[in-house]
Design a protein that fits this description.
The protein is mostly beta strands. 0% of the residues lie in helices and 37% in strands. The strands form 5 sheets. Strands 1-4-7-10-13-16-19-21-22-23 form a 10-stranded mixed sheet, with no helix packed on it. Strands 3-6-9-12-15-18 form a 6-stranded parallel sheet, with no helix packed on it. β24 and β25 form a beta hairpin.
């Protein structure tokens, strides 16, 4: 373990914590967890055994990242984000063999108190609004809001809303960086140079 942990945090033997990563007050990292470099795990965070977390990930307070969840590089989890791993849990019915995997792709943002129902992929640089409930895959660069979460627009890598239609054809620039984005059908791609 090459990261730093607050004295009140519990890091089980065998857990991997990358260089420059920090684990704050009352967090618990299970033995099988693999956490990359330069991550921040806030107060009260729990990380399960079968969890992979990339580099430069920020997990705010009171988030439980349960088994079968993967967070790629540069993912942001706001306070109180909820992950699940069983679709139909019952206290009296063991279902650990039925875990459904959840993948959060690079650069995605999960807003405060959103819920990610297991078995779905949240695309690269997608943005899940606060309080939303994800019940289906989320495309790259999509902004999803509500219960259940529905696409409400598109976001840039910088986290700025893009002036693009819901689907069809279009192009837009990130208002902060000037990067260009191209919409074809329901797929958005980023282009560093002119389209």
């Amino acid at each position: 373990m090459s990261g730093w942990a607050h004295p009140s945090a519990v890091i089980d033997a065998g857990a991997q914590l990358g260089a420059g990563s920090k684990v704050w007050h009352f967090a618990h990292v299970s033995a099988g967890a693999r956490i990359g470099a330069h991550c921040s795990l806030g107060q009260g965070v729990f990380v399960g055994n079968d969890v992979v977390i990339g580099d430069h990930v920020r997990i705010q307070n009171q988030v439980s990242v349960y088994d079968a969840v993967t967070l790629e590089d540069e993912v942001f989890c706001g306070p109180g984000v909820v992950f699940t791993n069983v679709a139909n849990p019952r206290a009296a019915v063991p279902r650990k063999h039925e875990y459904r995997r959840t993948l959060v792709r690079r650069g995605a943002t999960l807003g405060a108190n959103c819920t990610v129902v297991c078995g779905h992929t949240i695309g690269a640089w997608a943005f899940v609004g606060a309080g939303a409930v994800v019940t289906a895959d989320v495309p790259d660069f999509a902004l999803v809001l509500g219960v259940p979460a529905r696409r409400a627009g598109w976001m840039s890598k910088h986290g700025e809303r893009l002036d693009l239609p819901a689907s069809g054809q279009g192009q837009a620039r990130c208002p902060a960086t000037g990067e260009r984005y191209l919409l074809e059908g329901e797929i958005v791609t980023c282009h560093a140079h002119a389209i």
